[in-house]
Amino acid sequence: MRRSINCTTSDDRLPIPHKFYQPGNLVIGGIVSQVLFLYDNLSFKEQPTQMLLGEPISVPKNYQHVLALAFAVKEINENPRILPNISLGFHILNSYYAARMTSKATLNLLSTQHRFVPNFKCHNQNNMALIGGCISEISANMAIISASHKTPQMVPNEAQQYMGVVQLLQHFGWTWIGLFAVDDDKGNMFLQTMVQILSQNRLCYAFIIGIPKWDYMDDMIEVMIQHWESYGIVIKSKANVYFVYGEPPSFQVLRVLLFLAPFLALPPLGKVWIVTSHWDFASLSVQKIWDMQTFHGSISFTVHSNQPSGFQTFLQMVRPSWAKGDGFIKDFWEQTFNCSIKISDAMDENKETCTGEEKLETLPGTLFEMKMTGHSYNVYNAVYAVAHALHAIYKSRSKHKRLAEREEVAIQNMHPWQLHHFLSSILFNNNVGDAVHFDVNGELVTGFDITNWLMVSNGSVIRVKVVFLHASVQVLPLSVCNDNCYPGYSKKKKEGEKFCCYDCAPCPEGMISHQRDMDACVKCPEDRYPNKDQTQCIPRVLSYLSYKESLGIILTLLVISFSLVTTLVLGIFLKHKDTPIVKANNRNFTYILLIALLLCFLSTLLFIGQPGKAACLLRQMLFGIVFSVALSSILAKTITVVVAFMATKPGSKMRKRVGKKLANSIALSCSLIQVGICIVWLCTYPPFPDVDMHSLDRKIILECNEGSASMFYCVLGYLGSLAVVSFMVAFLARKLPDSFNEAKFITFSMLVFCSVWLSFVPSYLSTRGKYVVAVEIFAILSSSAGLLSFIFFPKCYIIVLRPELNNRKLLIGRKI
């Protein structure tokens, strides 16, 4: 038959909580409760209690850990498939946050009942395992003592939590945080590790506050006085997020600090708290009415938990008289329900008498939770882990023994150190379906839940398992050293400050930043340009003088108009070719000049439209050659006039040189020189279509690259030379007799021509894009129109409107 379970506890004070983590001391509740599993039952010794103003101090919420232990043992003892015919027993002692009490309790567990003899084994009982808290100092003291007995223990692995916090901070953009750590060796190790991890992930801490340790409430006043200035540091900081590495006593220190702040006219913190799995938002028995709103919205990495079936039903059955061996329930019941179990005590303390029928589900979450917490779930799994390991030993050692000898052989002759191997190799699913097993490092394979804590005004605590903050946190706070640098700005380092503290500098011209807090602005690709705010790159617009835009249409209409007028003038001269005014100054050169002017007007059409290879090759060459022909014709006409006049003087030898041969040679030679320049240009550095992405910020200029600027200015320079020579010759001939008065008009036309091209050069050099082309077109049109107007319009006036003046006698005798 299976022996019945007898639960005995050491003290009528509740243990204070902690977590069961991964392998190590199998945890029942925090720093305080050590649980011993034995084949038979043990009694206990009384321990001292904590007092404040005569009131016993406890953490009622942690009574669930005791109940989780009892529930697990009850399930195992009622399960015939685990340790058949064997009943588990347990013993609970309290450490009271004190190292000396932890040592004594551990020694008490490892000694025979009623015989406290350290370093000696005075009994035949083998202690199988301890389930205890993992507060650094408590666990260390347990480990030192229990190691000599080679009792199985576990050590927490906290690396997962650290990286989880880093990812959480990065997700919400919290780069400037406050660090709180318990003021002991483990807290110092945490700070060394965490500061390095933060720096590696571009995060900074605004301050580091050590959370004081205390063992008894009597020390609290002194602790508050010593650390009160820390509250001022926290208030002045810009950090809105605090990462806290502490343990239940540390949490109570913060609770007292925050509770006293309003009475000292200090502002509330109103920050986001991120805490490790060590913490549980639980109130001491004297803190029932204390406000918890400061911690509303806190985020914690809690031990993964689940809800074993039947646990809540088990809790509903708990009553003050439910187990004779439970030394905790009396104080728990009286302190949580504010009543007294004994009538005499109730009269003395002016309290109501407990009915014994009070319900646990009516208690606020800071005092007790009906759902199994992560710490209690670890206790539950720890009990099952030990039970399965014992069961494995039982099966392995009783294979070849007689049935009657199994219990004695399998269990009584087993030593604690032999449990290690079986614990590390177990793999089972608990009653909830969660797998329980250890990895190669002996660490429990488990994870952490990200929990959002919601503190309700009535004292209830709501745990929300989430990946992100619960919607009740209305607006996510900023937690940065300074305001973010918004797009269009980049970070500028502050001398002597941490890298999380910086100024914001606007991006230089031509550069952008498209994200917040960029370390440096970046240049846009060549085919894009920054927008006005310098926050994004916008595609550049193709820019060239198009036939579809207003400027292109106007210039095209001007070209057509001037071309029609030139054609009309040519037609008039052809129609009246035999009249004296047409024949007066070499009509062949008149025709050549008019055709050259017509081609000058039409050549500008090559400058309009998207530049192509053919257009780029032809437009400057055609313009240069045609203009040189026009100017050569004018020069030939002017020199012909001068030579003809000189030839009419008595004894002049110029008569022989007067004739078509002289004019033709002048026109031809001057034109061929320009043709030669253009051929050299084409053979060396010919023009080609090109793209200019730098002259204008917002546009890609499609243009014709002249190939060689020197050759281009050689063409213009030669045209300027012809114009200057023509102007000088015409100027000298302007006062010749009336029959040769065409020189006067040539003088004016050359003056206009030179003025236009002298103003063209600075305008050409100072403009960009399509306006460069427009300037050159305007120069060609205006200079050509000047030649057409001053040379031919007076003659057309006589031919068309005053034909009676178009005879030789009148022309010779008339002064124009």
Segments where pLDDT lies below 50 for 5+ residues? 1-54, 406-410, 468-472
Distance between the termini: 148 Å
Biggest sheet features: 7 strands, mixed
CATH superfamily of the largest domain: Response regulator
Main-sheet strand order equals: 8-7-9-10-11-16-17
Helix coverage percent = 40-55%
What's the structural domain tally?
A: 4
- Note the total helix count: 23
Strand content: 5-15%
- The structure class reads alpha/beta
**Backbone shape:** rod-shaped
CATH architecture of the largest domain: 3-Layer(aba) Sandwich
Count the beta strands: 26
Determine and state the CATH class of the largest domain: Alpha Beta
Report the mean per-residue pLDDT as an integer: 77
Q: What is the CATH topology of the largest domain?
A: Rossmann fold
User: What's the Cα radius of gyration?
Assistant: 52 Å
